[in-house]
Amino acid sequence: MSGKVKSKENPIAGFFAGIGAFFKEFGTALANGDTAVKASLLVAGAGYFKRKQIVKGILVTLFEVAVILYMVLIGFPYIAQLGSLGTVQRQMVYNPATMKNEVNDYDNSLLILLFGIISLCGLIVSLLLLIGNVRNAYRIQRLAETGKHVNTFKEDCNAMLNDKFHFTLLALPVLGVIVFNIMPLIVMICIAFTNYDSNHMPPATLFTWTGIANFKSLFETSITATFGYTFRKILVWTLIWAFLATATTYFGGIILALLINSKLTKMKKLWRTLFVAAISVPQFVTLLLLRNFFANTGIANTFCTSIGLTGFLQDAGLISTNYIPFLTDPTWAKITIIVINIWVGVPYLMLIATGVLMNIPEELKESAKIDGANPFQIFRKITMPYMFFITGPYLVTQFTANINNFNVIYLLTQDVYTTTNQKMSASFGKEIDLLVTWLYRLTSEQYNYKMASVIGICVFVVCAVFTLLAFNFLIKGDKEETFR
Question: Please, where are the H alpha helices in 33-162?
Fold first, then answer.
């Protein structure tokens, strides 16, 4: 009915309802299935063999055998060691047979964790597939009992290339996400609960489980442990940076697009070409050049000294050196980084904003002009709401990307900025670090994988919470009707 609004289904409730239905159907299959269906718990292809689906029965049985062989030979030994992550330390042992010192049969904690997690997840997935196989065998039994047609293996293959082709296409991407995203994420989360660092580096030494000790270190501060202090400082700067970097490039791009598209602007194509040319230069090259440009002895400082700006800042007490510390002072470095990011990011937003502005319905602007609205009111009431509506998802993803914006911070400050804050230095952090660059330093320079994993989890939580809240705000209501 037109007067009623259909309520949106809760996706979480739907997910758990689907899980409940899955196991309920499995229970029904065990209770009402024939002997072949029940035998599918032991021999996966039993239900198919009885229904003359020989090829499908052979394939699922071979898969079952492969899983059993892997689990017996590789999986279960690694899973059994997950609790301790290894007990035999690597060392040289004298072999009387060869009369030489040889490496003993040692445990590798990292391999135990990696293969143990993979095997455990594989075991869970295999059990779910087995349950699904029993359900499918029961469905085939029902079809056969009611006299309905049961698809052959050839017909199933044709269906996967026609009616269910979307499943075929999605199979490889989903597998890639599981292997390259979900599995490393699970391993990283597990590392956060260990003491895996430079003092416990496999295969030379073992590392063990430490519970939530690493998380306590990240949120506590003492004379010897300064990770809590460093984390708070870097987290605040990360959020400030993400907000300013997103806002300045977003509004800067819109303003630049409005200026170029203005009726008063001549040679519009030339201006667009110049800014697009700035994008064509690789960001890696641009940032390294700008790092040298704003160095203490760079071109920028030479120019500022020649025009007297450096002396003026010295007299005003804003700097205490004979150069402007664009990238060597905490405050100056943060300002410089934000300004450089504007130069790097505005052209992208200019192109996006240009496309959006060209699609704003002219009827809206004409109606506003007839009602007596001035250009600023049109911009505030029509242009910006339309821009927010269209580019809202991009704005959210850009904020998240800036939280993880490694290039700008690292390439501009690496080997240039040195912290004078002893507490931050003790935790291998810098005032200008983002959480992601701090994480990188901990792994690549200090090999402190345990704390890097904890920080990685914190980055994920920050990004996930903001993204969920922002998207929920963007999609609520009926904003589509506003611009129709």
Answer: 35-39, 46-50, 54-70, 76-80, 109-145, 153-161
pLDDT tens for each residue of 39-84: 998 998 898 888 888 888 899 999 999 999 999 999 999 999 999 9
State pLDDT tens for residues 285-295: 888 888 999 98
Please state, in angstroms and rounded to a whole number, the distance separating the CA atoms of residues 382 and 376.
10
What six digits make up the tokens of 262?
A: 């203005």
User: In CATH, what is the architecture of 216-483?
Assistant: Orthogonal Bundle (1.10)
Q: Contact 120/16 with Cβ under 8 angstroms?
A: no
Tokens 């993979």, residue? 118
* pTM of this structure: 0.80
Judge whether residue 9 has pLDDT over 70. Answer: no
Distance (Å, rounded) from C-alpha 243 to C-alpha 240? 5
* Nearest partner of 226 among 218, 236, 238, judged by Cα: 218
Over range 232-254, report the average pLDDT. 92
Contacts 24+ apart (CB under 8 A), 87-90: 87/206, 89/205, 89/206, 90/203, 90/204, 90/205
> Do 467 and 400 form a contact (C-beta atoms < 8 A)?
yes
- SS3 assignment, position 168: helix
Q: What angle do CA 148, 154, 159 make, to 5 degrees?
A: 75
Does residue 103 sit in helix, strand or coil? Answer: strand
415-450: per-residue pLDDT in tens? Answer: 888 888 888 888 888 999 999 999 999 998 889 999
Least confident of 27-31, 41-45, 157-161: 157-161
For residues 116 and 78, the answer to whether their CB atoms sit within 8 Å is yes
Instruction: Give residue limits of the domains in the chain.
Output: 11-211, 216-483
Q: Are 434 and 447 in contact (CB under 8 A)?
A: no
Antiparallel, parallel or unpaired: β 100-103 and 92-95: antiparallel
